[in-house]
Amino acid sequence: MSIDVSDPTYWKLALALAAPASFWFSFRSWRLARVIDDTPASRVRSAAQGYVELSGRASLPPKVPNLAPLSGRPCCWWRYEIEERSSGGKEGWTSIDSGVSEAPFVLADETGSCLVHPHGAEVRATDKSVWSGTEAWPSTGAGPGVGQRFFSGPGKYRYTEYRIGEYELVHVIGDFRTVGGVSATDTTLEVMRLLADWKQDQPALLRRFDANHDGVLSMREWEAARAAARTQIEQRPPALPAPTANVIMKPQDARPFLVACYDLQLVARRSRWAAAGLAAVFVATVGMLAHLLVNGP
Q1: Host H or E run for residue 191
Q2: What is the mean pLDDT of each run of 10 residues along the chain (297 residues)?
Q3: How far apart are the first and last CA of the chain?
Q4: 270 CB-side CA count, 13 A
Q5: What DSSP string runs through 272-296?
Q6: 97 burial type by CB count under 10 A (0-12 exposed, 13-18 middle, 19+ buried)
Q7: Exposed/middle/buried for residue 103 (C-beta within 10 Å: 0-12, 13-18, 19+)
């Protein structure tokens, strides 16, 4: 099915889609710049619980390797895309595969460290490689050499990979929490769980608590089972307290979650320019759409 670009209906539809899209991305870019400007920088040790900005060196948790899928390089985070050269006379690329790392990595400053859970983050990485090949999936280690940030060449497939390397300076804005530590045991909940386990073996439950041997636990007999379960829970040795850990992750509300290897003021400045440009696109598309609706057929 061919598209007639001379048809006014085509342009009306295109402009009607472009206007809200440009408005949304303009607002999103402006909001990110405002968040960077309004969120004060904190240190890990003194960071308040909640929405904060942290900066530090990235590293992998102990004994937890993370290899970038296309190049095979060790890193703290990666994102990749594989594109296939379009067939036919028109030059272009079609994305056929992509992926992003969600494995936590460590951010450490001079006061302490925390785990960064990158799920849902907008990541601005500086380490980028682009190269081409003849296979839909490149051979491990067949990408650019170490330290070579960009390479491209002939081939049916194009591979793009972004990485955050170990010990790279990273800035994170997100929801900071300290988890673990001493917590009180919910005795009632533990009793309910133990009774549920006992119910899985009805013959054993009846042998233990069916005093009159009628095959059914009466209310009094069930209360005896409940009391026995509570006694068993209360006589257990206290559990060791879980170690505390600092984590920063995506906020549960709609606030941005940003991981950037660039200076955040540079990110904010680029976001403001993007917001201004997209706002101009929005005004232009609305004006053209109004012109077509008023003067068009």
Answers
A1: helix 187-199
A2: 60 79 82 82 91 95 88 93 78 88 93 93 93 83 51 77 95 89 57 77 85 80 86 76 80 91 83 84 82 72
A3: 23
A4: 8
A5: HHHHHHHHHHHHHHHHHHHHHHHH-
A6: middle
A7: middle
